[in-house]
């Protein structure tokens, strides 16, 4: 049977917003592996998959492998895919000949470099922008859990929900500046992608996952932070061409 990806949505049929899930989806496409997608919600994770996976806290993404076993965590899944399918394009060294030595210093360095790209759009800054919007898409029970102090920490949601439009604009401007700095460094000359000049890899998946998090809740916010940079917009079109995901993009809000 094909690999099955369990991808997080706020409610059945809702937007695909999870950065971690997107990285795994892109990794499967990159590896040219057939796969199916099953939607899961926070409610499913808490009340169905904790027991099925035999874990204290189920998180998405997780995959059901071809042998029927499950694997959770996007980084673990990426490592598994490179190890299990060595003759398919490598996730971290796309220009290297297959198979890549997964114990090499070069591979380790490439994995760390991809992780470092998460700093381009810091998770805390992104959270302050997308959280109030994604919370509105959750069902009542899930929303109460999702914004609770027990989950986020004492006073975190009170702080997030009290932020003004001016506060959001400042964060958006800071992110826009960071994006411009990174694209100037990596995409200014002949580079088509963030790590490799000619082929996308896991670093690009990391950048795209941050973009998707915002795009899944606001077209305008995504444009003001990311698309307004011409270099980023060009890279985004190349990524959309390389990784066709109409089923993901079509669920996004129009505004």
List keywords for this structure.
Glutathione_S-Trfase_N; 13 helices; BY PROTMAP: gi|472587665|gb|EMS25161.1| thioredoxin fold domain containing protein [Rhodosporidium toruloides NP11] gi|647398721|emb|CDR42902.1| RHTO0S07e05314g1_1 [Rhodosporidium toruloides]; Glutathione S-transferase Yfyf (Class Pi), Chain A, domain 2; Thioredoxin-like_sf; 2 domains; 255 residues; 55% helix
Instruction: Compute the average pLDDT.
Output: 95
CATH architecture of the largest domain: Up-down Bundle
N/C terminus separation:
39 Å
| Secondary structure: number of strands | 4
Poorly predicted sequence stretches spanning 5 or more consecutive residues: none
Question: How many domains, as an integer?
Answer: 2
SS strand fraction: 5-15%
Please compute the radius of gyration using only Cα atoms: 18 Å
Written overview of the protein:
This protein is α+β, with helices and mostly antiparallel strands. It has two domains: 3-110, Glutaredoxin; 118-248, Glutathione S-transferase Yfyf (Class Pi), Chain A, domain 2. 55% of the residues lie in helices and 7% in strands. It is built from 13 helices and four strands. The protein has a four-stranded mixed sheet with strand order 2-1-3-4. The model has no long low-confidence stretch (mean pLDDT 95).
